[in-house]
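The following record pairs a protein chain with its ligand, adenosine-5'-diphosphate.
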Amino acid sequence: MESITHFLINLLIILVSLLFFQGFVIKNHLKRTHLEFYMFLTLTISVSLCMMFPLTLPGGIPFDLRFIPLVLGCLYASRYTGVWLVALIVVLRIAIHGFENSWFAIGNAIIFSCICFTIREKFKQYSLAQKVTLQVSLFIGMSIWVLTGSKLLFQSPITVSFTFAYTGIHAAGIGLAIFMAEHIKNQHLLLLRLIRSEKAEVASHLASSISHEVRNPLTASRGFLQLLSESSDIPEKEKAYIDLAISEIDSADHIIRDYLTFAKPTAEKIEILEMNKEIQQAIQIVEPMAKQFKVEIHSQLDSAFITGSSGLLQQVLVNIMRNGIEAMSTGGTLTVHSVREQTSLLISVKDDGIGMSQQQINRLGEPYFSTKDLKGTGLGMMVVYRIVESMKGNIHIDSKKGIGTTIFIRLPYMTDAEERKIS
Ligand code: ADP
Ligand code: MG
């Protein structure tokens, strides 16, 4: 009975620290580094408290539930936190009980954490039920191993009821802890998604309310400026100013178009698109800009047919190519490839420009994320993601700071049978 009370107190410590952690996560939708810090703190406290309140059997061997926070650390926190928890267990154990009584426990902590580190990546892909089942079985095995070892090596007086209490509470405890950890993780993801979609909603409202009103007067002004620049009464130098005004109006129009697409990405007509023609057309659109930036464009294109809207596809390609060119302010090469894979066409746009850090890559597609100060809107990639998603494709980014960026887009193409049916 005493053993059950002790282990339940241990379990209470672990679950209460997890609850505190959850409180932090919900209150201040934390960044990754903050999250890691709080996880480190929570697990350190629960390991220390568990080890300070063990059940010590006659003969001096202590038993507690420290393996539960250890495994949580190895599976959910960073690897550094996992290693730190093992070190903490080793130090505390030797400090409290001396080395003679501790080598078996230390060895177990190291073996157990190594097992968890090995399965860590695979574990992430399992369903909740699989995760709980795996850990509960692992803990039952571990408990039996620890109890047998303690009995044989240190002649600990282990009774049947003690065995049931230690094994049962360990198994139930890890099951509950995994359940809570998963719940906290999902809640955090949901919170981040909610914040993102709130931002997107604001952008969408703005888009539909102002785009039309601003676009019409802009188009009219552009027309008159165009007429003015064709007049023979105006000196060449002043014509340059007019051209500048036209190009500024064009860029304003471009921004508004980004907003409009964001508001309703599926408004355009769906047709069958010949991809190499579409890509060539997009290259033609960005060619003047490439010249201005002293960028050469190389292309090698496989042919494939896809269904979609040409206007939207052009926006995807042009936005990505423009970003590539803008990333090479001192000139370079933009390489556009398209390769037929089994069921989809892989389009890659590669530049040797400034590249992006991992943090920048993660933020790509977020509304208003731009590193171009006044020149950028931070809407281009958001529109790209939205359109590609609506075309049932996907995007992959490969980028290294200072080396360059490759953006891969996969779009499902029509099979030969589908093509024949249409022609
Ligand atoms: P904008 O171009 O208006 O800044 P985007 O959504 O098109 O907005 O791009 C967002 C940000 O992503 C850019 O400001 C830039 O920092 C980064 N980015 C996008 N493409 C590239 C690229 N090819 N190379 C380097 N950075 C890029
Ligand atoms: Mg852009």
